[in-house]
Amino acid sequence: MNAMTRPMPVPTPTSQPFWDALAERRIRIQYSPSAGRYVFYPRVLAPGTLADDLEWREISGAGTLYTFTVSHRPVSPHFVDAVPQILAVVRWDEGPHFSTEIVNASPDDVRVGMAVRPVFTDHPEAGVTMLRYEPAG
Q: Coiled-coil segments, which residues (predicted)?
Protein backbone atom coordinates (compact mmCIF):
# COMPACT_ATOMS: atom_id res chain seq x y z
CA MET A 1 0.00 0.00 0.00
CA ASN A 2 1.14 3.45 -0.86
CA ALA A 3 2.27 5.62 2.04
CA MET A 4 0.05 8.49 0.92
CA THR A 5 -3.51 8.57 2.18
CA ARG A 6 -5.93 8.60 -0.71
CA PRO A 7 -8.37 11.49 -0.90
CA MET A 8 -11.89 10.49 0.10
CA PRO A 9 -15.26 12.15 -0.42
CA VAL A 10 -16.61 14.31 2.37
CA PRO A 11 -20.39 13.98 2.76
CA THR A 12 -22.35 17.22 2.93
CA PRO A 13 -25.78 17.72 4.52
CA THR A 14 -27.27 17.41 1.02
CA SER A 15 -25.41 14.21 0.08
CA GLN A 16 -25.44 12.48 3.51
CA PRO A 17 -28.45 10.20 2.72
CA PHE A 18 -26.55 8.80 -0.31
CA TRP A 19 -23.47 7.97 1.82
CA ASP A 20 -25.58 6.58 4.70
CA ALA A 21 -27.30 4.18 2.28
CA LEU A 22 -23.97 3.01 0.81
CA ALA A 23 -22.78 2.13 4.34
CA GLU A 24 -25.88 -0.11 4.55
CA ARG A 25 -25.13 -1.71 1.14
CA ARG A 26 -28.03 0.14 -0.47
CA ILE A 27 -28.17 2.84 -3.12
CA ARG A 28 -30.52 5.76 -2.56
CA ILE A 29 -30.74 8.68 -4.96
CA GLN A 30 -33.17 11.52 -5.36
CA TYR A 31 -36.39 11.42 -7.36
CA SER A 32 -38.24 14.52 -8.53
CA PRO A 33 -42.02 14.12 -8.91
CA SER A 34 -42.22 17.48 -10.73
CA ALA A 35 -39.62 16.39 -13.28
CA GLY A 36 -40.85 12.77 -13.29
CA ARG A 37 -37.33 11.34 -13.04
CA TYR A 38 -34.46 10.29 -10.85
CA VAL A 39 -31.61 12.76 -10.49
CA PHE A 40 -27.99 12.44 -9.46
CA TYR A 41 -25.79 14.13 -8.01
CA PRO A 42 -27.61 15.06 -4.78
CA ARG A 43 -28.98 18.60 -4.81
CA VAL A 44 -31.42 20.90 -3.04
CA LEU A 45 -33.78 21.75 -5.94
CA ALA A 46 -34.98 19.62 -8.83
CA PRO A 47 -33.15 20.25 -12.11
CA GLY A 48 -35.34 21.77 -14.80
CA THR A 49 -38.24 22.62 -12.50
CA LEU A 50 -36.35 24.09 -9.50
CA ALA A 51 -39.05 22.49 -7.34
CA ASP A 52 -38.39 21.70 -3.71
CA ASP A 53 -39.80 18.18 -4.14
CA LEU A 54 -36.79 15.86 -4.15
CA GLU A 55 -37.37 12.52 -2.41
CA TRP A 56 -34.77 9.88 -1.55
CA ARG A 57 -35.63 6.53 -3.12
CA GLU A 58 -33.77 3.25 -3.21
CA ILE A 59 -32.65 1.96 -6.61
CA SER A 60 -31.26 -1.43 -7.58
CA GLY A 61 -27.89 -0.07 -8.63
CA ALA A 62 -27.92 -2.25 -11.72
CA GLY A 63 -26.76 -0.47 -14.83
CA THR A 64 -24.94 -0.39 -18.13
CA LEU A 65 -21.40 0.72 -18.80
CA TYR A 66 -21.88 4.03 -20.64
CA THR A 67 -18.20 4.86 -21.24
CA PHE A 68 -14.78 4.12 -19.76
CA THR A 69 -11.08 4.76 -20.05
CA VAL A 70 -8.14 2.72 -18.86
CA SER A 71 -5.64 4.86 -17.00
CA HIS A 72 -2.11 3.46 -17.10
CA ARG A 73 -0.75 6.52 -15.33
CA PRO A 74 -1.96 7.34 -11.83
CA VAL A 75 -4.52 10.14 -11.66
CA SER A 76 -2.49 11.50 -8.72
CA PRO A 77 0.44 10.30 -6.61
CA HIS A 78 -2.10 8.80 -4.18
CA PHE A 79 -3.02 6.16 -6.79
CA VAL A 80 0.46 5.08 -7.92
CA ASP A 81 -0.26 1.51 -6.78
CA ALA A 82 -3.70 1.36 -8.45
CA VAL A 83 -2.89 1.22 -12.16
CA PRO A 84 -4.18 0.23 -14.56
CA GLN A 85 -7.39 1.81 -13.30
CA ILE A 86 -10.66 1.46 -15.23
CA LEU A 87 -12.42 4.81 -14.80
CA ALA A 88 -16.03 4.63 -15.91
CA VAL A 89 -19.46 6.17 -16.20
CA VAL A 90 -22.36 3.82 -15.47
CA ARG A 91 -25.91 4.55 -16.58
CA TRP A 92 -28.22 3.27 -13.87
CA ASP A 93 -31.32 1.39 -15.07
CA GLU A 94 -33.29 4.23 -13.43
CA GLY A 95 -31.66 6.81 -15.74
CA PRO A 96 -28.93 8.93 -14.12
CA HIS A 97 -25.24 8.50 -14.87
CA PHE A 98 -22.65 7.79 -12.15
CA SER A 99 -18.88 8.28 -12.31
CA THR A 100 -17.09 5.29 -10.83
CA GLU A 101 -14.38 2.69 -11.26
CA ILE A 102 -14.72 -0.82 -12.69
CA VAL A 103 -13.19 -3.45 -10.40
CA ASN A 104 -12.73 -7.23 -10.55
CA ALA A 105 -12.22 -7.08 -14.32
CA SER A 106 -9.41 -6.94 -16.83
CA PRO A 107 -9.43 -3.93 -19.16
CA ASP A 108 -9.68 -6.40 -22.07
CA ASP A 109 -12.99 -7.72 -20.71
CA VAL A 110 -14.70 -4.33 -20.42
CA ARG A 111 -17.09 -3.18 -23.17
CA VAL A 112 -19.40 -0.20 -23.53
CA GLY A 113 -22.98 -1.43 -23.16
CA MET A 114 -22.14 -4.32 -20.85
CA ALA A 115 -24.32 -4.94 -17.78
CA VAL A 116 -22.67 -4.02 -14.48
CA ARG A 117 -23.53 -4.48 -10.81
CA PRO A 118 -22.56 -2.56 -7.68
CA VAL A 119 -19.60 -3.35 -5.44
CA PHE A 120 -19.52 -1.66 -2.03
CA THR A 121 -16.03 -0.87 -0.73
CA ASP A 122 -15.64 0.22 2.89
CA HIS A 123 -12.96 2.70 3.92
CA PRO A 124 -13.24 2.67 7.73
CA GLU A 125 -10.29 5.05 8.12
CA ALA A 126 -12.35 7.69 6.29
CA GLY A 127 -15.76 6.58 7.58
CA VAL A 128 -17.07 6.19 4.05
CA THR A 129 -18.26 3.40 1.74
CA MET A 130 -17.45 3.86 -1.94
CA LEU A 131 -19.58 2.56 -4.81
CA ARG A 132 -17.66 0.72 -7.52
CA TYR A 133 -18.90 -1.55 -10.30
CA GLU A 134 -18.04 -4.94 -11.79
CA PRO A 135 -19.26 -6.90 -14.81
CA ALA A 136 -22.65 -8.47 -14.07
CA GLY A 137 -21.87 -11.66 -15.98
A: none
Examine the pLDDT at 78 and tell me if it is beyond 90: no
CB–CB of 31/18 below 8 Å? Answer: no
| Alpha-carbon span 119 to 25, nearest angstrom | 9
In this structure, the number of other CB atoms found within 10 A of the CB of residue 60 comes to 12
106: nearest Cα among 82, 85, 136, 75: 85
Name residue 65's amino acid: L
Q: How many CA atoms lie within 13 A of 137 on its CB side?
A: 9
Share of the chain above pLDDT 90, in %: 85
Nearest-angstrom CA–CA distance, 86 and 79:
12
The answer to whether the beta carbons of residues 93 and 51 sit under 8 Å apart is no
The DSSP output letter for 4 is S
